[in-house]
């Protein structure tokens, strides 16, 4: 559990640093317009990078939520439901993110 | 496991008395973590505007360049950098590296966080200004 939090966290250092730099710090005006976002996501490497970030950041965030709730002393039975709930939520978030990215990307192809 | 009510245990990690750097680092990690989870949800929710087309997105971009938004970006980066640097510290400590230095590492995390936040805030206002 702890080691997964650390592992995804270290991945995020790289995934998120480049996400921030490419989406904001090397962009004229600091924020991409609609047209720029579409062009940006059409690049296959960028697309793969953003999807990787989506998956890793979702896992890291929801494992963090569970760690906090475990510290609050939830019962093992509650934790079993919590794990199911968070897994479903993660799949929902990742599915939504992939759908949205694919939609935007398809508009530039 | 204690028999204290849950809200008292929850309050436990907010209580800094006698805990010094390690406790403060842990509390800040929790608070920034909660803030970042909330931000992640907001971020993904706002991105839905992209699906609605250029007008919706570009109108949001114009709002996002207001000074208030940019200041909130600064707060986000402050929390993000702390969480990232302290995450490296916690990982090292967890692997048994630098344990006697943990308090000094915490202050190193604070200095790095504030320095880089300063640079980022300057860059944000320079880019959008």
Give me some keywords for this one.
heterodimer, A: 109 residues, mainly alpha, 3 helical TM bundles of succinate and fumarate reductases, 4 helices, 0% strand, B: 129 residues, 5 helices, SQR/QFR_C/D (chain A)
Write up this protein.
Chain A: One of its GO terms (molecular function) is metal ion binding. Chain A: One of its GO terms (cellular component) is membrane. Chain A: It is found in: Membrane. Chain A: Keywords: Heme, Iron, Membrane, Metal-binding, Transmembrane, Transmembrane helix. The complex is a heterodimer of chains A (109) and B (129). Chain A has 109 residues and is mostly helical. Chain A has one domain (2-106): 3 helical TM bundles of succinate and fumarate reductases. Chain A is built from four helices and no strands. Chain B has one domain (20-128): Fumarate reductase/succinate dehydrogenase, transmembrane subunit (3 helical TM bundles of succinate and fumarate reductases, Up-down Bundle), CATH 1.20.1300. Chain B has helices at residues 6-12, 20-46, 54-64, 67-94, 102-128. In chain B, helix 2 (20-46) packs across helix 4 (67-94) and helix 4 (67-94) packs antiparallel against helix 5. Chain A binds chain B through residues 2-3, 6, 9-10, 12-13, 16, 24-25, 27, 29-35, 37, 57-58, 61, 64-65, 68, 71-73, 93, 96-97, 100, 103-104, and chain B through 1-2, 6, 9-10, 13, 30, 33-34, 36-37, 40, 44, 47-48, 50-51, 53-54, 57-58, 61, 64-65, 80, 84, 87-88, 90-91, 94, 123-124, 127-128.
Give the helix/strand layout.
The complex is a heterodimer of chains A (109) and B (129).
Chain A: H1 2-25, H2 34-41, H3 44-71, H4 76-106
Helix pairs in contact in A: 1-3, 2-4, 3-4
Chain B: H1 6-12, H2 20-46, H3 54-64, H4 67-94, H5 102-128
Helix pairs in contact in B: 2-4, 2-5, 4-5
